[in-house]
Amino acid sequence: MTDELKFTVADRVATILIDRAHKLNAMTPAMADALVAAVAECNASDAVRAVVVTGAGEKAFSAGSDITTLDGYATAWDFRNRADYCDALRACRKPTIAAINGYALGGGLETAMACDIRLASTTARFAAPEIKLGWIGGGGMAAGLAYSIGASNAAMMLLTGDMIDADQARAWGLVSEVLAPDALVARAQQIAAVIATRAPIAAETAKLNLRAAFTMPWDKAIEYERDLQAICFATDDAREGRAAFAEKRAPEFRRR
Q1: Of 1, 4, 117, 128, which has the highest C-beta tally within 10 A?
Q2: How far is CA 102 from CA 26, 56, 165, in A?
Q3: What pLDDT digit, counting tens, does each position of 67-79 carry?
């Protein structure tokens, strides 16, 4: 870990805090490595059932990769094969919630899109500004925008590099809710707490199922869904859920 990326767990909810507010929470290679390690801990720990990702301070969720560090790669190929924090978040098996508290630019926008649920404060601003500097995003920018907001809106962002505000992001479907800045993280933690009460294996397979819905042909996605349902149905948690329903009590899920 690093002082500029903090990882905590409480009540089965992990929080990943990008903590470099004086640099708009821009990510360094050391921070990227720490985020990769944090996700690995989430995947390995039965104590984590949901993850909240947010940025420190009031100005930024994350401005993406720190541009001043990019010339530190010996070759473009080394840069291409770097440890990517967006890849790490996409590989998180636990449900993830982005609490976007300001600028989400470049890799910061990709970080948010790598999460399953996105909430924004009224101060949030979103952009894919790489084109203004001579390159394009590489952490899932085009795919994430196309899935989230459609081809024309994605093209608008990718080809101009201009920012959109939180209300526009909500209208386009990039975020689910827009909240007052002082309510943002609490709302993300509230949603995470609800998810943490659900059957963990079912939550993890629901993530797989949703991704399949975007990446598989229609008939194969439905077939895969039924396979995942059968896996869940055979778990101890599913038996507990059925028993709790019959006995009119709250279930106690154990990720088994």
Answers
A1: 128
A2: 12, 10, 10
A3: 777 777 778 888 7
